[in-house]
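Project standup — Tuesday

K.O.: blocked on the structure for the chain from last sprint. Re-posting the sequence here as requested.
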Amino acid sequence: MSLAPVKILESADVDPSAKIGGGSSIWHLAQVRDQVVLGENCIVGRGAYIGSGVVAGNNCKIQNYALVYEPAVLGNGVFIGPAAVLTNDEFPRAINPDGSLKSGSDWDAVGVSIGDGAAIGARAVCIAPVKIGTWALVAAGAVVTKDVPDFALVAGVPAKRIRWVGKTGKPLVAIGDNRFECPVTGEKFKEITSDKLVEDN
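H.V.: unblocked you, prediction finished:
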């Protein structure tokens, strides 16, 4: 199956060195910096920012005004909600102790890593360096300060796990013996520890 051509709106700012996969769309006022690698069939919404060297897999959705700072790495099928932020500086400062303006050589960028199928809700903030597990779900407005397990639903400030979710994003239903079931697909899961859920098919 051939992919649709890349669609880049005239008002978008895409660096010539960025690699954009077939079928992807980049909408009004979005900025895609140098050396970005964006997979096939991705959508970059209005006003979104993707920093230098960010890598995103296939079928990702980066919604309006989301800020994805380098060196973030997004797996396949990742959803970044409107106005969500992936940070890259553990100790942010505009100036050095001597009062001089900081430059790129005065700090080390650290990135957020997001596993396949995971979703970051609107206006959530992921504080680098954190890893968001596969199929995890970060609630809208959450502030993530530590790694998120696979299939975890985290919410709050700071974000804490409140449920397990399946691949549809719907909360799993407990069926006894530390086992859970997706109410949509019927897939089964087993809780190994309070921070680890695995598929149990």
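K.O.: great, moving the ticket to review. DSSP finds no helices and 26 strands in the chain. The chain has a mean pLDDT of 96.
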